[in-house]
Amino acid sequence: MTKRNKESEPAEEIVQAEQPASEIVAVVEPPIQPMESAPTGPTGPTFGQRVGRFFAALLRLVIFLIVLAALAAGLYFALPLVYQNYILPVQENTAQLTQLKTRLAQNEITIAGLQTKLDAAQTAQAQQAQSISDLDGKVQKIEEQIAARTQSLAALEQAQSALQAQNDATDAEVERQINLMKSMELLSRARLFMYQSNYGLARIDVQTARDLLAKVQPTAPADFADDLAEVIHRLDLTLANLPTFPVAASDDLDIAWQILLGGLPQPPAIPVTATPASETPIPEATATPTPSGTVEPTATP
Known about the structure:
Helices cover about 75% and strands about 5% of the residues. By secondary structure, it is mostly helical. It has a domain at about 150-300: Four Helix Bundle (Hemerythrin (Met), subunit A) (Up-down Bundle), CATH 1.20.120.660. Helix 4 (about 170-195) packs antiparallel against helix 7 (about 245-265). The protein is rod-shaped, with a radius of gyration of 68 Å. It starts with a helix and ends with a strand.
């Protein structure tokens, strides 16, 4: 049924309602003739629909533009903040990290140089320690020789005391030989003190030996008295050069010791156990310069 038929049906119903009931019964409706159906075909959108669609598309376009503008504004204001808060600190940290790596490499080079210097210093220290150890060994040997000389002098002192305590007629020759041997031992010990650069003790021993030899010279034979005079002269030179000129003093002391050793007569047998000066090995003296500029004798056994 078409639209027009649908609109006519309520009108007929209203007319029928307004008629009285008695007439309703008598009225006979005529038979409804079938209406020809209107030709059906594709119908297009109405003007209102088109307008609605236009406004809907326009609204979507406006919303899209608003969203796009909001995104652009957000990017415009957010990108500088992101750059300042994230990208710029990362760049600065990268530059600082590069500088730290450069400094670390320089520090490693410096540490390597210091390690090399430390190794060299340790090597030099080890060499110095070895040199000190060798010098300690030499000093110990010299001290042992000094102790042996001291013991020999003590034995001679005991022998002289024993001879004096016997209250017998002391032979002048025996006493002279004892004094000569004491002088030899004193000069030998003085030489060892010279090798140690202990000029004070060396001067005391030289002075004591010189006094003993001066006491022996008047009673000595003529030929030996001349040797004793030369020895005393050399000892006087030694005393004059100590401690200012230790090398010259050491040379004069060696000459005096050699003269005394060469001109010493064979001593008679005495009841004393002592080491003769001629049998004791005497180290040779060599000059060694010291840091202060003086020349210091060095003992070579």
